[in-house]
Amino acid sequence: QNLLADCVAGPELPGFPRPTWQVALFSVPTGLLWYGWYKFAVEEELAAYNSEHPSQTPGYGGYGTLGPFVLGLALGPLAEAVHAPGGAAWLGVGVVWIYYTQYLLYKRVNELYSETGQEEPLTVWWLVFPGFNLVVGLRQLHFLAEFWACQRGQTLQDPLVDFFPFIGAPRYTWRKFLRSPSLWMSPLQDVKDFEYEILQEPKR
Fold it and tell me: Is 77 helix (H, G, I), strand (E, B) or coil?
């Protein structure tokens, strides 16, 4: 019953903590359709939070974020079918828009932490780096949920983050991620870092 309530929980203020394991549980079986609901809800929550805590990073709420994306997805095939101007390019517009709003979301999550005197957890440019875009996406899920849990005075329990430490670890570089098996999964926590020169941090 509680799991179902979490699944359908709408936007709240403070935001509703949605741990990574739940996002994965609800998203994968639905072919990421539930993730669309997640995206809508967190964007609405951040827009409401921004009205009380002004941000330098713009946000468009749930409707402004998903509306142009869905419109682009619908117009692309339709315009191509009827040979309308733009054709399939409308699909590209929708994809570019959702990437842009994801970039803004990552920046906003970093702001939430920096505004409270904490380290910014996300390396935003990983959004466009294959493989690392998944890493930073998972970290966004976790750290936003962690922030809202803290705002509510709650403690977040997430077995997925416990098993994959790279999701919840303090911010690290791409070199640190590649050379540290202990970040990859908990069974490797005692494995020493690789010592390849290319994976060492540059000297300053």
Answer: helix
Q: Which residue has the tokens 């827009």?
A: 47
CA distance 90 to 32: 21
The model's pTM is 0.92
Task: Give CA–CA dist 133/115, Å, rounded.
Answer: 24
Reply yes or no on whether the pLDDT at 86 is more than 80: no
* Span 2-34, pLDDT tens digits: 888 999 899 999 999 999 999 999 999 998 899
Tokens of 159: 């077995």
* Residue bearing tokens 């466009």: 128
Please count the other Cβ atoms lying within 10 Å of the Cβ belonging to residue 35: 16
Give every CB contact of residue 69 below 8 A, 6+ residues apart in sequence: 94, 95, 97, 98, 101
Backbone angles phi, psi at 146, to 5 degrees: -65, -40
Please give the pLDDT value at position 20. 97
Is residue 156 within 8 Å of residue 19, measured between CB atoms?
yes
Residue that is written with structure tokens 């908990």 in the block? 186
CB 99 within 8 A of CB 127: yes
Distance of CA 105 to the CA centre of its chain: 7
Structure tokens at 14: 């403070």
Contact 65, 104 (CB under 8 A): no
**In sequence order, what E strands does 88-132 have?**
none
